[in-house]
Amino acid sequence: MKQEERRERAKNTIMLAGLKLFGTKGYSGTSVSMLEEETGFTRGSFFVHYKNMKAVFEETVNKFYLGRVTSCSVPNEYRSTLKGFYSKLVSMLEEECIEMIKNDVRYISKAYFILEQEALLHISDFKQKYEETMQYQLMVWENVMYKAKESGEIPEDVPVKETASLFFTTIIGHAVDSSIKEKLCYTDGLMEKLNNLYGLIVNRKEVQTA
Predict the structure, then answer these.
(1) How far is it, in rounded angstroms, from Cα 117 to Cα 97?
(2) How distant, in Å, are the alpha carbons of 18, 22, 32, 100 from that of 124?
(3) What is the pLDDT of residues 62-91, one digit of tens each?
(4) Which long-range contacts (CB under 8 A, 24 or more apart) does 10-14 make?
(5) Contact 158/174 with Cβ under 8 angstroms?
(6) Which of 40, 44, 172, 191 lies at 20 to 30 Å from 185 by C-alpha?
(7) Torsional sign, CA 115, 120, 123, 128
């Protein structure tokens, strides 16, 4: 293994440990000694990769919160239909959840919300990045909704922005509920909720054309 690959693997190990610790104990409640215990790294090797705890926290937030699976992650080839889009999104979220469980990161939805709150407190430009990310996610949903109307998948009089927001906030609400209930897999029941929303729209179309 090349030196650069070893370095990236070590950093990823530290960030995974950071996700587990920051996502449960918060930024202020996590110490270098906790990361040492979680990773098995010595303090000296830890500081080879990061100059301080703040650097670990910021990179962990960038990778595992801002870089998590969202509507923006869905490939373009799945954005031509509404059902195809949200089905692929749920599938990707499930894969992310399984991967996190394999890495011994439990209750990932709760960890994300704690990371979000801690980042708002401790990272100066996080609020702007957060708002931009949320706006872009909603924009993706709106674009998919426009395509669904153009193709005839959903009725022409369906309000795009309001319906896109409904799907988007349903996913957020489901994540919040999963966080509160500390569900291991935060996608449980999500597909059913989205299918129910989709059914209401499509059935409305069938009634109109009957």
Answers:
(1) 21
(2) 19, 17, 22, 27
(3) 999 999 999 999 999 999 999 999 999 999
(4) 10/41, 10/45, 10/49, 11/49, 11/50, 11/59, 13/39, 13/41, 14/39, 14/41, 14/46, 14/49, 14/50, 14/56
(5) no
(6) 40
(7) positive
